[in-house]
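Work Package 4 report. The design task specified in the project plan requires that, given a folded chain encoded as structure tokens, an amino acid be chosen for each position. We show below one input record used in the internal validation round.
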């Protein structure tokens, strides 16, 4: 039984979101994302995600008021949507529906993370990690299980019943399946530690091949199980913090009751490979993940690793549509390598928001330099500001970044 006051709070917030979702600008922004993702952009696009929410509640609008934990989760989602729309909407799209995750159980690979953490700000969920190396012997490879997927229909129905009670008449409720990514080296980094894993690539390459082979096979098994059980995610609105709207998906033969990998995007990355050679990137990342990527409709590849010097290998990954250009990439080289073949997904440095004193001119110059490089080489361009660990408790810095970015792209 839901608490009546919780229902009132949620429905008041949902009504505000529904009103925004009905604005004509939402359809206009979806159309702009489709043009960009078709590599025929009207202009560069901008999104902001992974915000330091612990520093944003300057006006009390993010303070949760619901008592029930399930309602508080919905409340947080709604309040953050409204906050972003009011203060840094850039090219976000507010959809007139709410996704409710199905009760899917994934057993995973059977390895839990063992680590020590370091906290610099107790109000932040950003912490330092020191991981224990759990893969040192041949026997350790046997720890890896093949993920098993199962679904609890009764639990899904209960979740949907709660959502319908909260949102009917305001926002459409959509049951949502499971979305996966290709970030296998992120898992290995957490199981071994980055330094240990990098040394092992050089000292024990056969061992690391066996490790990566097991993870790749396990991921492919996971895909098959999700498709067979009709538990795959539906076509997305976002993929890795960027607009996923496209006319290329879903694929022909799409059945909403049984989505397939080829109906959706996947994101992939090998962040710890920032310092390896192109040959090692090819051997230990591309030769494995292209087996996974081939199953999907479209691929967004890259995150924090600089890919400007690795595009020959990235081009071998099937179905890539967007390539991340991190703050550490050489933008001119990256733009020359990408050309008009992929979306140049620039990740501007969030460090510009974390300095002792905020300098708007540095933000403007940084964004203009990216746009100039992409115009020179004919690259479709998006700016995705993410990984924002701090704005020094000055939310206006983020608001100003958003205003400057929209000026630079002409939005």
């Amino acid at each position: 039984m839901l608490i009546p006051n919780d229902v009132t709070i949620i429905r008041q917030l949902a009504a505000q979101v529904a009103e925004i979702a009905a604005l004509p600008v939402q359809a206009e922004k979806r159309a702009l994302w489709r043009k960009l993702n078709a590599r025929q952009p009207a202009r560069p696009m901008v999104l902001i995600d992974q915000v330091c929410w612990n520093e944003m509640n300057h006006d009390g609008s993010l303070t949760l008021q619901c008592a029930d934990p399930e309602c508080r989760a919905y409340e947080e989602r709604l309040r953050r949507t409204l906050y972003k729309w009011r203060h840094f909407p850039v090219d976000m799209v507010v959809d007139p529906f709410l996704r409710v995750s199905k009760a899917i159980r994934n057993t995973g690979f059977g390895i839990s993370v063992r680590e020590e953490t370091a906290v610099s700000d107790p109000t932040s969920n950003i912490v330092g990690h020191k991981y224990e190396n759990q893969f040192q012997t041949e026997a350790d490879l046997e720890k890896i299980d093949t993920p098993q997927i199962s679904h609890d229909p009764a639990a899904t129905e209960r979740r949907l019943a709660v959502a319908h009670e909260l949102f009917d008449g305001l926002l459409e409720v959509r049951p949502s399946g499971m979305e996966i990514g290709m970030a296998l080296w992120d898992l290995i980094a957490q199981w071994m530690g980055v330094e240990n894993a990098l040394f092992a690539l050089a000292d024990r390459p056969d061992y690391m091949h066996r490790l990566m082979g097991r993870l790749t096979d396990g991921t492919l098994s996971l895909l098959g199980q999700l498709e067979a059980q009709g538990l795959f995610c539906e076509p997305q609105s976002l993929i890795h913090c960027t607009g996923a709207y496209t006319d290329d998906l879903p694929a022909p033969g799409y059945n909403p009751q049984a989505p397939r990998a080829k109906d959706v995007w996947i994101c992939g990355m090998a962040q710890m490979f920032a310092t390896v050679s192109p040959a090692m990137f090819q051997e230990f990342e591309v030769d494995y993940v292209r087996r996974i990527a081939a199953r999907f409709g479209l691929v967004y590849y890259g995150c924090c690793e600089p890919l400007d010097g690795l595009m020959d290998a990235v081009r071998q990954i099937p179905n890539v549509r967007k390539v991340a250009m991190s703050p550490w990439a050489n933008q001119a080289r990256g733009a020359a390598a990408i050309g008009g073949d992929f979306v140049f997904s620039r990740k501007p440095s969030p460090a510009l928001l974390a300095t002792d004193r905020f300098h708007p001119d540095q933000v403007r110059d940084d964004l203009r330099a990216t746009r100039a490089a992409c115009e020179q080489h004919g690259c479709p361009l998006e700016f995705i500001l993410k990984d924002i660990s701090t704005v020094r408790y000055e939310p206006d810095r983020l608001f100003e970044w958003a205003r400057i970015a929209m000026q630079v792209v002409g939005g």
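The radius of gyration is 22 Å. Validation will be extended to a larger panel in the next phase.
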